[in-house]
Amino acid sequence: MITILKGTRVDNRLLPAGIILYGPPGAGKNTFVHALARETNVSFFPVSAFDIKSEDVRIERLFDEARASSPSIVYIRYVDELAKRRDCESSPALVQLLNEMEKCKDNGSIVIVIVAPDYPKNLDPILLDSDMFLDQVHLGYPDEDGRRKIIGLHLKRVLREEDKEAICDIVASQTPGLNWRELRTFAIICTTYAASRGDVYVKMDDVFQALEKINNNVFSNLDKLMAQENMRRRVASIAFGSQK
């Protein structure tokens, strides 16, 4: 999809009208969509379902702007408020949303609607069964490699180059089950410990303190010494390598 959107000629028949991006709270759905918009460099219309669920006119105006700015992405946060599963008839706003998406397909506009519920099963069947939302993408908790990349992003401004690999490796291996939001909180804790030392750069001791705080897990002195020794070896290899 990214390749198609970044192309010089975009055919809306090759793209989904709507995408259900789902996953547990804190998995990074919001961050993912914003990153997608930046990567593709298309027009981006983020909107809250709270703002549009009671005003059909606002939905129409939103899609008029999105079609005029095609190719574009419309991102509806808190879609559960707009498309909540219910026993009675579907909300008028949801029906209007699907109608506007149909218009986009009919007139050739490139408008992709992304909704990001925690659990799709809680959504109105009219949305789940619609031809407008045939694509569902699951965004779960990151694996170890994913955690390594995420913590690297969160700490990229406060890690010295010679410390980065060792710190990211330790954090990734010691934080199974943490999601994007929790890793961001972890990064903030690390920077707080660094600031308490009067430093802007996070060091391994700050990481161990943060891990102890979130896991209630006191690392042994041996663990700390091994991590510090690994770091010293990496620094030495960089230093000697640069002298060759």
UniProtKB/TrEMBL annotation:
Keywords: Hydrolase
Residue ranges of domain AAA+ ATPase in the record: 15-143
Gene3D superfamilies on file: 1.10.8.60, P-loop containing nucleotide triphosphate hydrolases
Gene Ontology MF terms in the entry: ATP binding; ATP hydrolysis activity; ATP-dependent peptidase activity
InterPro entries: AAA+_ATPase (IPR003593), ATPase_AAA_core (IPR003959), P-loop_NTPase (IPR027417)
Pfam families according to UniProt: AAA
SMART domains: AAA
GO BP terms, alphabetized: proteolysis
Classification via SUPFAM superfamilies: P-loop containing nucleoside triphosphate hydrolases (SSF52540)
Entry superkingdom: Eukaryota
Hydrolase listed as a keyword: yes
GO CC terms: chloroplast thylakoid membrane
Record-linked PANTHER family: INACTIVE ATP-DEPENDENT ZINC METALLOPROTEASE FTSHI 3, CHLOROPLASTIC-RELATED, METALLOPROTEASE M41 FTSH
Protein name: ATPase, AAA-type, core, P-loop containing nucleoside triphosphate hydrolase
Organism: Artemisia annua
